[in-house]
Design goal:
alpha/beta; nine-stranded mixed beta sheet; 10 helices; 13 strands
């Protein structure tokens, strides 16, 4: 049976001070979707190595369908990322390359499955590879699912022109406040420099700028401990995040994304969607690793 939600992109090992954890934003989203109670599948690639064997086993335990996770050609290892945390638990990431997820093959069977899905998510990070850009292009041509684009500006893989071209293929854009500010500034000036909007009016203005540049009129902005905002055709809805003691923020945005996807595909009230998604993200930030077990009271509103 085809899954309800499909994710395209990286599956890898996050190497944190607390140890190694299965990760990669698309994998994390798929794992959180499975915990929410919807069927999810990953389209990715792992190496022909013990790390690949192990991460597929983890995916199975997390009930992520890996039918379309292929094995890479010899010489491309399973992906790894070295994560360094600051005193607030925020991570910086060194993405080791080359990696298996730089060559994700998409068979026709996957295209057929995605056409029957409720939603499809793809991210900017996998776009560092020309091979992947060609493959995801075929997926984005598929009619049917609601398409979510997860902006992930991780230097040195943070090319505004490429990100904006990928964004044009989506129905919903999701990015953090630093990313919306940087991209909006680039659209206005041609310069890619840090610029984080600090109030609702500034966020709405930056969302409007991105919408006009991409033709995508639903933009979701995460704001860490300040919550999140959803801009939909000129109307901005906001929600606060619950206070938690942060352990590490790895995977918090991916839990938020899972809640956002389920809520929007079900046509839920925007404020309620944001409240649920913020709760999921905050819970993950209060734990080590990207995909801790979510308590039923957080997932029940989406079931």
């Amino acid at each position: 049976m085809p899954a309800e939600f499909y994710a395209f992109g990286e599956i890898l090992w996050d190497c944190l001070p607390s140890g190694k954890h299965a990760g990669g934003a698309p994998f994390n989203v798929a794992a959180h979707l499975a915990q929410i109670g919807v069927s999810s599948a990953l389209i990715s690639c792992v190496g022909r190595d013990p790390l690949g064997d192990e991460i597929l086993e983890v995916a199975g335990h997390k009930r992520v369908n890996v039918e379309f996770v292929t094995r890479a050609r010899i010489g491309l290892p399973t992906g790894t990322v070295i994560v360094t945390l600051d005193e607030h638990g925020n991570g910086t990431y060194e993405l080791v390359r080359p990696a298996a997820w730089d060559e994700i093959r998409v068979p026709k069977k996957a295209l057929d499955a995605v056409s029957k899905a409720r939603a499809f998510i793809y991210g900017s990070l996998a776009g560092r590879s020309p091979y992947n850009l060609d493959q995801v292009d075929h997926l984005l041509d598929v009619k049917g699912p609601m398409k979510f684009f997860d902006v992930n500006l991780r230097p040195p893989f943070a090319d505004p022109p490429l990100v904006m071209e990928l964004a044009k293929r989506a129905d919903v854009l999701k990015l953090n406040d630093g990313e919306v500010g940087r991209l909006a500034h680039w659209v206005r000036t041609g310069e890619s420099i840090p610029e984080t909007p600090r109030d609702d009016a500034s966020i709405a203005g930056d969302c409007q700028t991105l919408a006009e540049a991409t033709g995508v009129y639903r933009v979701c902005v995460t704001r860490a401990e300040e919550g999140a905002a959803l801009w939909d055709r000129g109307k901005l809805t906001t929600a606060a995040a619950p206070y938690v003691e942060v352990k590490d923020t790895v995977g918090a945005g991916d839990a938020f994304m899972a809640g956002l996807m389920v809520g929007l595909t079900r046509g839920m009230d925007h404020r309620r969607v944001l409240e649920i998604a913020c709760g999921l993200g905050a819970y993950v930030a209060s734990h080590y690793g990207a995909t801790p077990l979510l308590p039923p009271e957080l997932t029940r509103p989406l079931r």
